[in-house]
Amino acid sequence: MGETITFWVLAVVSVSAALGLVFSRKAVYCALMLGVVMLSLAVLYAVQDAPFLAAVQIIVYTGAVMMLFLFVLMMVGVDSSDSLVETIRGQRFWAMIAGIGFAVLLALAVGQAAIGDPAGVTGANQRAGGNVPALAELIFTRHVFAFEVASALLITAALGAMVLAHRERTRPRPTQKDLAKARFVSGYPGPLPGPGTYARNNAIDMPARLPDGSVSELSVNRVIARHDVEDGRLPDDPELAEAIRQAAAEEEEHNASIAGPKEDR
Amino acid sequence: MEPVEIIQHSGGVIGVAWLMIALPLLGAAILLLGGRRTDRWGHLLGVVMSLASFAVAVLAFVELLGMSGDQRRREIELFQFIPGMVDMGLLIDPLSIAFALLITGVGSLIHIYSIGYMSHDPGRRRFFSYLNLFVAAMLLLVLADNYVGLYIGWEGVGLASYLLIGFWQHKPSAATAAQKAFIVNRVGDFGLAIGVFLIWTTFGSVAYGPVFQVAGQAEQGVLTAIGLLLLLGACGKSAQLPLQSWLLDAMEGPTPVSALIHAATMVTAGVYLVVRSGAAFFPVGSTAALVVTVVGVATLLAGAIIGTAKDDIKKGLAGSTMSQIGYMMLGAGLGPVGYVFAIGHLITHGFFKANLFLGAGSIMHAMNDEVDMRKYGGLRKLLPVTFVTFFIGYLAIIGFPLLSGYFTKDGIIETAMHHSPVLGWLAVLGAGITGFYMSRMVFMTFFGQKRWAEDAHPHESPAVMTVPLIILSIGSIFLGGYLVLGNTLANWLAPAVGGPEEPIEFHFVTTPGIATLVLVAIGAAFAWMKYGRAEVPVVAPRGSFVTTFARRDLYGDAINESLLMRPGQWLTRLAVFFDNRGVDGVVNGIAAGIGGTSGRLRRIQTGFARSYALSILFGAAVVAGALLLVGNI
Amino acid sequence: MTTHYLVLSALLFAIGAVGVLVRRNAIVVFMCVELMLNACNLAFVTFARQHGNLDGQLIAFFVMVVAAAEVVVGLAIIVTIFRTRRSASVDDANLLKY
Hints:
The complex is a heterotrimer. Chain A has 10 helices and 2 strands. By secondary structure, chain A is mainly alpha-helical. Chain B is mainly alpha-helical. In chain B, a hairpin with a 3-residue loop joins strand 2 and strand 3. In chain B, helix 15 (313-332) crosses helix 18 (404-419) and helix 16 (335-366) runs antiparallel to helix 17 (384-398). By secondary structure, chain C is mainly alpha-helical. Chain C has a single domain, classed as Helix Hairpins (Orthogonal Bundle). The longest helix of chain C has 31 residues, at 55-85. Chain C is elongated, with a radius of gyration of 16 Å. The mean pLDDT of chain C is 89. The B-C interface holds B 602-603, 605-610, 613-614, 617 and C 17, 20-22, 24, 90-91, 93-98.
């Protein structure tokens, strides 16, 4: 009875979270939804007499993999939310058809199968003196070769990730002299004004006012300025809004210069 | 009287009869492989080889003479040519040795004559090598003891003929004429080849001895088929209707070639083939023999009519050759008596026609290679030797009493008359036309006014050319009488081809004989009126429809063109069209179809990983559905 | 009870598949793939329970190992692509086409 209640609650939670994963616009929300699904599944593992897997699920997936996802998300920009416009014609419609059809087919198959009462793994667990020793026995005896291969796979993956993520330095590291030169060449040798100076509010996305009272677009972080422009959070003051727009435009220009000319689509 | 048994022979001169073939072949090989190094003495080597071959032939002839009649068919084995099928050997019998003597004898004379005739030609060494090659091939043709050997010789003389007609290959007309001769001969040779195949499948052998022994046992239809196929071959080689068209163009070759190959020897190979196979495949009264006589009569008339209209002296003589071989063919279709006269006429014709051709060559030599008789005239004073010898040849060919042609041609006419009056009277008519066109030739050349080109300075030819003429003209006078009177040739040939039941008696005064003489006299008189007494225009008058008909070789080329060449061209174009549109169309269509389909299908490859993933999911759904349907889950 | 688990597993798998198909952010697509793998793992664990042996749990364990490796390499690839193209959209990497 307890299992049934647990199952239904977690089933509703995990399916809702999965749908949220698919449909939420922001990648960070997606990651959180995935975390919810994984935790629910961990509990379901535990319910089904698989405590070791439940622990591994939480430690490896929710702990390591999810953190990795979030880390990469932060790296490539948490803001990289999808636009909701589908570019491939019919993709959504056919994806829905295929997904629902596949789910119905699987459900039909499962429903058709004559499934008796579960045998339960309690016996198997007890024979070795617990779930973990039982699994350990299996891993290090019958499946030891697969286990070694898996370890090799992990090492290879680690090396591969390092090779892929490594960036070769193509020019010498700039010395202090180089940096100083660059600063003077840029035309603004002094430190940039901090945001919020002489501002009416203390927010980080509000440009500073210079001592003569004019607005400095250099004082606002360009990335933040772009977010403000995209989200439409511009201050009422037209001077400030103009400064933020300029900073955002600079950021776009900068991005475009890094990405290079995109191929036409 | 049946032909006698063939006896295996070894030793003596006959044992080395293969030297007859080998010597000229060696000469040809030395001259062809030796190249320019042999230029200085090449012609002499050619003459020596030809004369040596003649000497062997004479010695073999003498040895054969020393045997009794029923011993005179000797066969010598040489080597196994195709194991289990063809044993190459030579058959030395009265027929083949007669041919060998003619070929090597007349051949040698023409070799000697050519020394003078070709003295200024840069290709003289090559010319003599081809001549030697021809002699060797022709001797193989007549001496071989089986049809395969004959066929090899047959193709060999065809090759030599091709090379010699096109000897001046820088002249487009000569090159075309050579190709024409070769192609027309292909038709005949094809027939001969099929005939030989049929002989092999019917009798299991191609050697004369075994084939003739069992020939009578085969079915009549097969025998007729073989006979007609062999006749097709004979028609090609001997320029008989309907394969006559090449001979007139063949006169593009040097005149000695026209004399040796296209008058005296090669073109008589068809007669040899018919006579050699006569007892087996052309017995008197058979369909094949009837066709032979019909072809002969048709050709003798056609050749004579063509001869009347030609202004080119060599083409006139070529028409005459066709006509005379028609006589021989007629004789060859008339059984043993006919064989005697056919071979007799062949030998005498070999002499007087070679004489006439070499005479024509001598005239051309004197007239800067001019061949148009309308530009001759009045040459008898300036070329006395040529005139006398040519005139003797002329008298011989028109059948002037007691000269060679008189005996042999009258013999054929008499035999034909005895056989079928229609054939006989047509042959008489042909003789009359012969009288006209040969007289025309003599009158236009040697009598009347001078109609020479301005730069012509006629002069008698050197001795190296006139001596052969004299020898040949002596043969033209006496040979016929010697062969026919007293049954010399009949008795000689009897062991080889069978003889008549009773000795042939030659009657000097017979109805057809007198009729022939009267017609010939009328023809000659008509020619005198038109070309001797009257003035001959330098440019040929337009002439009536009949003249045009004769001038254009009885429309032989036109018939060939419209019946064979044009349909062939259409067929070729059709095949090309079919190849371009049909075969290529299918191939290109399939390629284009696949290309077009691929061009459209590749649009599926959008580069969007999500599209690919969608198809994967669909595939998985389909697989799952299928598994569910068959109930394996 | 087994049936329920399996249907839940199928449902999560299908949702994950749809997510792979409709989302364009490479990282989100990757998350959906992880979701599909997790759904499979649930099925494996359920089967282990149904059959009364630990092979299913063992397989699920290996799936986790492989999934971890895959995530590491996959994310590294995404980072590399993002570095050069300034985009994490799977639709932008479409040069390999007709």
